[in-house]
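Final report, results section. Input specification for complex C-07:
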Amino acid sequence: MSVAAVKIIMDKKILFVEDEPNLQKAITEVLVQEGYKVFGAGDGEEGLKVAQVEKPDLILLDLILPKKDGFEVLKELKADEKTKGIPVIVLTNLEGVGDVEKALTLGATTYLVKANYELEDVLKTVKSQLKE
Amino acid sequence: MNLKTLLKKLDFMAECRKYGLEFWQCPNSLFLVMGIIIIVAMITTYFIGIRLVDPEVVIITVCSVTVVLLVIGHSLVNSFARVAEANRMKSEFVSIVSHQLRTPLSALKWSLDLLRSKRLGEINGKQKEYLDIINESGVKMIKLVNDLLNVNRIEEGRFAMMPKLFPLSELIEETVKELKLMAEAQHVELIFKNHKKNSDVYADQEKIRMVVQNLIDNAIKYSKKEGGKIEINLDIDKDEFIKVNVKDNGVGIPNIAQKQVFGKFFRGDNLIKQKVEGTGLGLFIAKGIVKISGGDMGFESKE
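Structure output:
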């Protein structure tokens, strides 16, 4: 890997909105090791605020969140000019077809069910998303 | 039949007690009470009719008995509603518990993934062995929770399908390839015979994959440990339906258990003796998926 390539990865910022601290910790650990800068938010409102201030390159979003749920966060992210273009990976344990469809219609890029994916799979998805 | 099983059969309240319903809330007991009242009322009316010639008395008796029966009938309808409600609550309970379990299970799984990936440092042989054991148990729990959620969705009729046209033979080939190693490890031969060129079906591909995986997986698990042979045939039946059968030469299912094969938590006696792993929900889910897709599933076995 060339120096320039490393520099690009170092600059990438990821926001992870998740109310379960143990889950957030494991993912953050891996992403930081991979050289990403990770911001965490524990509820929907905080997530929106961090997204507007930090303008991350990618957002990992849970759907069941305190204060403002993931669908609402997604809606507001896509309505705001500043955050509209940020790709959002929905990372949740809700998997009703209605939920999947709703999230994708609202503008989510990918939908992952937490219980069914390994940590490395999540990392792979994040990497391929940031490459595009 | 001994006395105990006879009494058990006569215990009409047993089912209601399971749902926590009392005598006056239980359809079975209410039916019995209604039956007795009707018989007694008819006999009494008969005697009143022949002893007292006054027709008003007969009419009043019949009317008052009818009122009593109406009241009981009303509680009967209510009691059915209660049974349905109890059943719904049970499903909802399972659904909530399963969903709630998924979050801590995901945290467990990801933390384990992290440890086992050696990103946090090297782990020695023994440590790895135990981490693998925890991981295996975690994976099993997630599978069980997923199965329970699927059972719930099938029972409540909200198992959503995303159907499209796809060749079933390719899906089977892929699955056979995936499971070939597992079969070989148990000295089981896995053969797929495709008798039909066009095997396009309109269904949810991933759900049907679950079904095919489940059937072949079962066949491997329950095959003879030496010289086991599984044959999968794809053909078209007389009604122009695509018919797939998976045949093994394993232990078979005893006649008395054959009715329950597609029930929930089914484990045949033969299977328990062999200590085969599984949730016992696979075939219930598989049949549910096939039924929703407009097909059907059955089986034959020699004990």
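The CA atoms of residues 4 and 10 of chain B lie 10 Å apart. The longest strand of chain B covers residues 228-236. This concludes the modelling results for the funded period.
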